[in-house]
């Protein structure tokens, strides 16, 4: 299925877009969304394990299943410096 | 309270004289007095918060100077908390400023923050932020997370059990990696300004903006409207069934 993902922060700069389309298999998870995103935009690889991914305005774990029509967002990891 | 000092600020309709007077009754605790914390403490004192404690056990180091504006070379080697106390008292004698030269830990945080109306995050690692998050929820004390990395900053005001907590948005985040955090010098001042505005809004009971992400290099500003995670292990009510 084709899903639309809204991207935030520097991911807008990397993708040159506010929203991107990704091809994901039925029954796939948010982790699969991240895999697909990283494959398409390899410079995001270093964020992979810490990327913030939300489904329907709620942050969710990578094993959360998605269905067509879910509102997905991807943003860079929570920033930790002070 | 001096009316002249805040005259230009009270003209702002979002605040007004009433808001200014309310701010003067509030107690903020800034944990960390580095890039973010020193800027935030400075602004809160200038904006007329009633009282402020700044807690940090570190000393001013040469590596702090590129991203701070209160510290000078003369302060090198001195306690950040005490330098901030001295300098911020000189800026606004109407605000009670106290520097506490102490490391914040899981064991002492309750005694340090129990009387706070708000906690302002100036820390530089995730483990202490999770301790702040936990105590915030336990004692219903709002706090404002902020972080900086390279050219990107994030801010999120947290109203316990009403808005998402740090755990709600960061369940996949491991402990901070060791080593120095790269930060462009202009970033902490901007992020601290946003953080202080969210702090003031929290204290005045105004709605918060959600998670704010700012990339100073690409001039990209985003606000994410997010919901609480009902299964959040820290603030959620529901238990996840696997």
Briefly characterize the structure.
The complex is a heterodimer of chains A (82) and B (242). Chain A has 82 residues and is of the alpha+beta class. Chain A has helices at 10-15, 30-40; strands at residues 2-7, 19-23, 52-55, 58-59, 72-75.
Report on this model:
- The complex is a heterodimer of chains A (82) and B (242).
- With 82 residues, chain A is an alpha+beta fold.
- Chain A has helices spanning 10-15, 30-40, and strands at residues 2-7, 19-23, 52-55, 58-59, 72-75.
- A 5-stranded mixed sheet of chain A has the order 2-1-5-3-4.
- The radius of gyration of chain A is 12 Å and the shape is globular.
- Chain A starts with a strand and ends in a 7-residue tail after the last strand.
- With 242 residues, chain B is α/β, with parallel strands linked by helices.
- Chain B is 32% helix and 18% strand.
- Chain B is built from 8 helices and 8 strands.
- Chain B has an 8-stranded mixed sheet with strand order 3-2-1-4-5-6-7-8, sandwiched between helices.
- Chain B is globular and about 55 Å long.
- Chain B starts with 6 loop residues before the first helix and ends in an 18-residue tail after the last strand.
- The mean pLDDT of chain B is 93.
- The interface between A and B is large, with 27 and 46 residues.
What is the strand and helix layout of this fold?
The complex is a heterodimer of chains A (82) and B (242).
Chain A: E1 2-7, H1 10-15, E2 19-23, H2 30-40, E3 52-55, E4 58-59, E5 72-75
Parallel strand pairs in A: 1-5
Antiparallel strand pairs in A: 1-2, 3-4, 3-5
Chain B: H1 7-10, H2 16-23, E1 27-31, H3 35-47, E2 51-55, H4 80-91, E3 96-100, H5 109-113, E4 118-121, H6 126-139, E5 143-149, E6 152-158, H7 166-169, H8 187-203, E7 211-215, E8 220-224
Parallel strand pairs in B: 1-2, 1-4, 2-3, 4-5
Antiparallel strand pairs in B: 5-6, 6-7, 7-8
Helix pairs in contact in B: 3-4, 3-8
């Amino acid at each position: 299925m084709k899903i639309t993902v809204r991207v935030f922060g520097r991911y807008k700069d990397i993708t040159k877009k506010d929203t991107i389309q990704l091809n994901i298999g039925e029954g796939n998870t948010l982790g699969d969304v991240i895999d697909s995103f990283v494959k398409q935009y390899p410079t995001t690889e270093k964020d992979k394990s810490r990327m913030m991914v939300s489904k329907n305005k709620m942050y969710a774990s990578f094993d959360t299943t998605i269905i067509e029509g879910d509102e997905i967002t991807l943003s860079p990891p929570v920033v930790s410096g002070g | 309270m001096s009316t002249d000092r805040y005259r230009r600020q009270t003209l702002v309709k979002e605040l007004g004289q009433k808001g200014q007077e309310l701010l003067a009754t509030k107690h903020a605790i800034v944990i960390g007095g580095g890039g973010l914390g020193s800027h935030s403490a400075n602004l809160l004192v200038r904006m007329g918060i009633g009282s402020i404690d700044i807690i940090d056990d570190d000393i001013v180091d040469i590596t702090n100077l590129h991203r701070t504006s209160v510290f000078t070379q003369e302060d090198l080697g001195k306690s950040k908390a005490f330098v901030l106390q001295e300098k911020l008292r000189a800026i606004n004698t109407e605000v009670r400023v106290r520097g506490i030269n102490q490391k914040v830990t899981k064991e002492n945080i309750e005694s340090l923050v129990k009387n706070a109306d708000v906690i302002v995050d100036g820390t530089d690692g995730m483990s202490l932020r999770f301790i702040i998050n936990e105590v915030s929820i336990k004692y219903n004390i709002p706090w404002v997370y902020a972080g900086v990395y390279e050219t990107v900053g994030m801010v999120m005001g947290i109203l316990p059990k009403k808005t998402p907590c740090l755990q709600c948005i960061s369940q996949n985040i491991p402990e901070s990696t060791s080593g120095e955090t790269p930060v462009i010098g202009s970033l902490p001042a901007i992020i601290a300004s946003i953080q202080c505005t969210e702090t003031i809004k929290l204290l005045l009971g105004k709605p918060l903006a959600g998670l704010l992400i700012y990339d100073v290099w690409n001039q990209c500003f985003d606000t994410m409207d997010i919901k609480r995670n009902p299964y959040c292990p820290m603030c959620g009510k529901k238990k996840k069934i696997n």
